[in-house]
Design brief:
Radius of gyration: 24 Å
CATH topology: Cytochrome p450
Number of domains: 1
Number of strands: 14
Bound molecules: protoporphyrin IX containing FE
Strand content: 5-15%
Largest sheet: 5 strands, mixed
CATH class: Mainly Alpha
Number of helices: 17
Shape: globular
Structural class: alpha+beta
């Protein structure tokens, strides 16, 4: 008994000494770095707990609000301390962001590790040679020629969406998020995976709920240093929920992969031309160095990545766009005029082609302005790997830098009247690195052109048929951030049918 009490006390003492040493070392390092980088300021922090006391509001929109307030109050470049006063840098300053993104060795920050149980070591998470190999496989799937082929599918799904929305004409406020979500899911599954899910008619409620819950859990983990350790996390209620949702999502993804594999077997190689090669087919046929096929886990990770990145971002952007259009009648009218000038005033425009869609310059500005005010990827992270230099100072290897795109895009010094929806602002030159909805450089979004094509097509189809008018004030837009920025409690508009009302 006495021996075990002694051992316990000794272990406790060792742990306390270790923590004291770590806290002391980290605080000293932070101090040195701050002296070298005068453009950075430290967020208030406590010994051991760091700045955790600033992040007590864990409501869905709370963390975003806290970060915005920190930047407003303390500046564009911050040093934030975490558990044991480990620290990371936060920035929304284009001048600093440019230097961070120019580092040659690109490593994603530690929080991407929290995505691994779900996405595996997929292209969004991995670095180095593995990432290069994956990107070589996925790039051709989103080549210009493939995008042309995707257009009929996107058009068909947009027509279904319009039919779904017609029943809400002249009705009460409508939350457009959910219908847009199923629209985007159908498109990414059919174009990239070659699998027709028909979610618009047969909603996949479980998958949607699981994905929503999982990203919420992951986001909370990013800002709670107590949950950083995998071991500790696995023992918490949140960790167990995360595990259950990942299992359920993987089941769904597996069924999508199996369906495509079955289709590939059903259409023999001799009739290959009947089978359009999709992103999924490329994954299934890929051989890595050493002639090794991608493992089942690799394929599942990549499919999960593209299913998520390919629908969640587009859904939110379209939901935000329709909301802003409903509140800015003059912008909506100008957008509609452009659509009429290219496609005529039919409520069901036909002959959408890649070429005609590129004529829609104002539509592009509307999407750009939407992604400025509401960048659907609000924050990205990098990890210094030795060659990252800020203001002449080499950032210590292993330091994380969080780039806050949302705060930068809403900075009134960079965007005068930042809270006004004004697409025309993009006719003027921007400060370099001040607009990064798709990030930039080699790790920028692979789906950027695909997303633009999908969003433009949706806007043409929707605007040709409906006029969007403001919802009731009680349903005004609020935003929340988990991994993506999305409407909190919905994105509401009212619909007016253009085929019945000519007073546009
Ligand atoms: C409005 C739509 C979209 C926005 C705003 C957006 C934004 C972004 C951003 C900011 C990144 C960089 C992430 C980081 O550095 O951690 C990214 C990466 C990525 N996006 Fe998108 N995205 C959109 C649509 C799409 C679509 C439609 C797809 C798939 C078809 C897609 C697939 C990806 C992938 C796979 C990556 C990882 C690329 C890499 O690291 O090599 N995204 N996206």
């Amino acid at each position: 008994m006495a021996i075990s009490a002694f051992l316990f006390l000794a272990a406790l003492l060792c742990s306390v000494l270790y923590i004291v040493h770590k806290v002391h070392r980290n605080r000293k390092r932070a101090q040195v770095l701050l002296q070298q980088l005068p453009s950075f300021r430290a967020l208030p922090s406590l010994p051991v707990l760091g700045s955790a006391h600033l992040f007590l509001d864990t409501t869905p929109d709370g963390t975003l609000r806290t970060i915005v307030n920190c930047h407003r109050r303390y500046g564009k470049n911050l040093l934030m301390q975490e558990l044991c006063n480990d620290f990371k840098l936060l920035t929304c300053d284009p001048r600093v962001i440019e230097q961070v993104l120019q580092a040659k060795t690109i490593v994603k920050s530690n929080f991407y590790h929290f995505l691994q149980p779900w996405l595996g070591r997929s292209s969004v998470v991995s670095s180095g040679e593995r990432w290069h190999n994956l990107r070589k496989v996925t790039n051709p799937a989103f080549h210009y020629n493939m995008l042309q082929d995707f257009l009929p599918t996107i058009e068909t799904q947009a027509a279904i969406l319009v039919r779904k929305l017609v029943q809400h004409v002249d009705g009460p406020d409508l939350d457009v998020y959910e219908p847009l979500q199923y629209f985007a899911m159908d498109i990414i599954c059919e174009t990239a995976m070659g699998v027709r899910l028909a979610c618009q008619s047969n909603p996949r409620v479980q998958f949607v709920q699981d994905s929503e819950e999982l990203v919420d859990l992951i986001y909370k983990r990013i800002f709670n240093p107590l949950l950083a350790s995998d071991l500790v996390y696995a023992c918490t209620r949140a960790g167990r929920r995360a595990k259950a949702t990942v299992r359920s999502i993987h089941q769904f993804t597996r069924s999508v992969i199996c369906e495509r594999m079955k289709h590939m077997q059903d259409v023999p190689v001799s009739r290959e031309s009947e089978r359009r090669s999709t992103f999924m087919d490329l994954l299934l046929q890929t051989r890595l160095a050493g002639d090794e096929l991608l493992s089942d886990d690799d394929i599942r990770g990549e499919v999960n990545t593209f299913m998520f990145a390919g629908h969640e971002t587009v859904t939110s952007c379209l939901a935000f766009a329709l909301y802003h259009l409903s509140r800015n009648a003059h912008v909506q009218q100008r957008l509609y005029d452009e659509i009429v000038s290219v496609y005529g005033s039919a409520t069901e425009p036909v002959a959408l082609t890649y070429a005609t869609l590129t004529e829609l310059k104002y539509t592009e500005l509307v999407i750009r302005e939407t992604l400025r005010m509401n960048p659907t990827v609000p924050m990205i992270g990098r990890l210094a790997a030795g060659d990252m230099v800020i203001d002449g100072v080499t950032i210590p290897t292993g330091t994380e830098i969080m780039i806050n795109i949302y705060v930068m895009h809403n900075d009134p010094h960079l965007y005068p009247d930042a809270d006004q929806f004004r697409p025309e602002r993009f006719l003027e030159d921007l400060q370099p690195y001040s607009y990064l909805p798709f990030s930039t450089g080699v790790r920028s979004c692979i789906g950027q052109r695909f997303a633009m094509l999908e969003m433009k097509t949706a806007l043409v189809k929707l605007l040709s048929r409906f006029r969007f008018v403001p919802c009731e004030e009680e349903n005004a837009l609020q935003v929340k951030a988990n991994l993506t920025l999305k409407p909190f409690r919905g994105s509401f508009v009212k619909l007016v049918d253009r085929s019945m009302h000519y007073d546009v």
